[in-house]
Amino acid sequence: MFSKILIANRGEIACRVIKTAKRMGIATVAVYSDADRDALHVEMADEAVHIGAAPAAESYLQIDKIIAACKQTGAQAVHPGYGFLSEREAFAKALKENGIVFIGPNPGAIAAMGDKIESKKAAAAAEVSTVPGYLGVIENPEHAVKIADEIGYPVMIKASAGGGGKGMRIAHSAGEVAEGFARAKSEAASSFGDDRVFVEKFIVDPRHIEIQVLGDKHGNVIYLGERECSIQRRNQKVLEEAPSPLLDEATRRKMGEQAVALAKAVNYDSAGTVEFVAGQDRSFYFLEMNTRLQVEHPVTEMITGIDLVEQMIRVAYGEKLGIGQADVKLNGWAVESRVYAEDPTRNFLPSTGRLVTYRPPSEGPDGDATVRNDTGVFEGGEISIYYDPMIAKLVTHAPTREAAIKAQSRALDAFAIDGIRHNIPFVAAVMQHPRWISGNLSTGFIAEEFPEGFSLPQPEGEIALRMAAIAIACDHRLNSRKRHVSAQMEGWRKVEFERTRIVSLGGERFEGEATEQGGAVTIAFPERSLTVASDWRPGEPVWRGTIDGVSIAAQVRPILNGVALGHAGAYANAHVYTPREAELAALMPEKVAADTGKFLLCPMPGLVKALLVAVGQEVKAGEPLAMVEAMKMENVLRAEKDVTIAKILAKEGDSLAVDAVIMEFA
Which CDD domains match (predicted)? Predict the structure, then answer.
């Protein structure tokens, strides 16, 4: 077995590989850019080598620097993780030429399957059902429009060398094809160093289902079940689960056998994923093959008990697979939420900055479920503008899908992040969504269920009552502390706090009377009483405890006269008053937000790539105004109404903070 390996990646996946390598007794080498000097993967590895400036093109995409780091440290093999160089045939070849083992498939398999155009040709040759499309390279927008017209709309414009939703656009008209072609080529060039794109038919109401395959260098290939990855936005997966609620055993076997046949046709010899687009009738078409470890691999590991990173290392060393197809058993259900640094209330735009608070839920058993959190960050660290905005992957595993979803919801409630915007409120809301719970999914789920964008759900019914009880319990705990503050003046009578509390929560009013007994607080509401028990202390960002014996968690942040709460996908400020305070609070005028309608504000920290209008120009609603790049994505900012440009306050190349004014309208 290898004695030392280098991980040619960063963040969560680098940390993930290091954990398995250490368990196997293999020493690890990390590489890092200027931006990652203090990163978690650097701290976890046995050695670390600096490889360049912050932009990936100057560090993590530099093959020569990775090879030099291997020679400098004596690393015998390289695990590429996902993204960056993981699907570059040239990288695998360069390592081989320098006597270094690539922990991934052979260069021939990468060439055949890693390139989306070539993989579709190979799939067609292997008689695998493929989506209608044009498999040649498209040179210009006019050519793209002609092809799209012939295929029929809608179409998907996709980077040949890419993945992770980068360099991908859906177009419903010729105009959208022309614009999408330019954006896809630009993103593909900046993210992968390869600007080739192709066009294929976009299947309406599809599901995204993928098969995990695992092969060795002795001709053995098996499949490890499927993953459902249909919950996506901007073609980027957000939630994954295994197995899929759509498939039956016959369809699973058929998809798995096709995936294995395709892998064997190209002599595939590592972990890889064959992706399919599936209809609601369980029909399916080959989409692409990712010749690397997938981001969502943990859900497969949880239901099979197989460590995919370990298998990749053993296969790369030359070992035969120790498991056959008959040995693969699917146990229970796993759900994964990708926790991103983005603002779901601003159309999921990226967010960067320091993680002032980062406290994930505890890993390990949670009743009949198990919690796993794969991450590459730490409290006090920074989310950089240079790389993918993923913070963590939160995974729960349980005997049933319902139990796994409930465990995921509890874990999200217990996940505290401050300092940046993040998507936990969104994924927590999805966990409560009836359509998600029913398993009636498609890749259009987010667009269909949140057509006006996402806003923080207000608490209702049982959830609202629970949150009111938590607010009163927190206020009761704060009052208890006040009783024990030292050096208080003694009055002529003992200070007593009012037992009746009135909670203003999400537009509703709850009145309850709190009574403490045996360490628990019973709160009598008009409709019923709730008994609340917790060891929560003021200042802790997560409230953990029981309500009527049921374990729950909630996000808690102090505000004036109360707490801001988040629980079960609902969020609201809970103002807690005595009856007299409530009377006075009702007389206070509400603060009106400033009108920003005359300004174009930068919706995220980013780089101004282009200003698309001039002072004095009249612009119609929907027309582009500027383009801002953040976290490898180009975001076109459009006019929300008909306006005239009065002033332009930024210039191309400027790095702007969130809400910085780009231009002013007349």
Answer: biotinyl_domain
Q: How far apart are CA 639 and CA 526, in angstroms?
A: 50
Tokens 């060398």 sit on residue: 161
Q: What is residue 69's predicted lDDT score, i.e. its pLDDT?
A: 98
Q: For CA atoms 84, 90, 94, 97, give the dihedral sign.
A: positive
Instruction: Provide the CATH topology of domain 132-201.
Output: Dna Ligase; domain 1 (3.30.1490)
- Range name among 132-136, 242-246, 340-344, 403-407 with the lowest pLDDT average: 132-136
Average pLDDT over the chain, rounded to an integer = 92
- Cβ-count burial of 41 within 10 angstroms (0-12 exposed, 13-18 middle, 19+ buried)? buried
* Range 43-50 average pLDDT: 98
Domain chopping of the chain, boundaries = 4-103, 123-131+205-331, 132-201, 338-438, 461-483+498-586, 599-665
Catalytic residue status for 47: no
Q: Could you give the 3-state DSSP secondary structure of residue 299?
A: helix
How confident is the model at residue 270, as a pLDDT? Answer: 97
At a CB cut-off of 8 Å and minimum separation 6, what does 313 contact? 1, 2, 5, 20, 21, 24, 26, 77, 79, 103
C-alpha dihedral, 646 to 652 to 655 to 659, nearest 10°: 20
Angstrom distance (rounded) from CA 4 to CA 33 = 21
What CATH code is assigned to 599-665? Answer: 2.40.50.100
Cα–Cα distance between 307 and 324 in angstroms, integer?
15
Query: What are the phi and psi torsion angles at 242 (to 5°)?
Result: -145, 135
The DSSP annotation for 457-471 comes to PPP-HHHHHHHHHHH
- Whether the bond between 154 and the residue before it is cis, its omega within 30 degrees of 0, is yes
| Residue 90 and residue 63 in contact, taking contact as beta carbons nearer than 8 Å | yes
- Reported as a single tens digit per residue, the pLDDT across 586-616 is 888 877 777 788 999 998 888 899 999 999 9
Identify the CA nearest to 305 among candidates 332, 326, 336: 332
pLDDT of residue 26: 98
Please say whether the structural domain 461-483+498-586 has been given the CATH code 3.40.50.800: no
3-state secondary structure of 632: coil
- What is the mean predicted confidence (pLDDT) over 498-510? 92
Q: What is the pLDDT of residues 521-579, one digit of tens each?
A: 999 999 999 999 999 999 999 999 999 999 999 999 999 999 999 999 999 999 999 99
- pLDDT by residue (tens digit) across 10-26? 999 999 999 999 999 99
Closest alpha carbon to 415 in 463, 374, 359, 457 = 359
Task: Look at 161-170, 204-213, 592-601 and tell me which has the smallest mean pLDDT.
Answer: 161-170
Helix (H, G, I), strand (E, B) or coil at 649: coil
Query: Measured between alpha carbons, how far is residue 202 from residues 115, 138, 153, 457, 561 in Å?
Result: 19, 17, 7, 32, 52
Q: What gap in Å lies between CA 474 and CA 465, rounded to an integer? A: 14
Catalytic-role residue among 288, 296, 301, 629: 288
Using pLDDT thresholds of 50, 70 and 90, give the confidence band for residue 163.
low
CATH of domain 338-438: 3.30.470.20
Helix locations, 528-619, DSSP H? 579-585
Query: Do 36 and 60 meet the contact criterion of CB atoms below 8 Å apart?
Result: no
Q: Which residues of 188-197 are buried (b: 16+ CB within 10 A; e: fewer)?
A: bbbbbebbbb
Residue 387 is encoded by which pair of tokens?
């790389």
123-131+205-331, what's its fold?
D-amino Acid Aminotransferase; Chain A, domain 1 (3.30.470)
- Grade residue 494 by pLDDT with cuts at 50, 70 and 90: low
Amino acid at 364: G
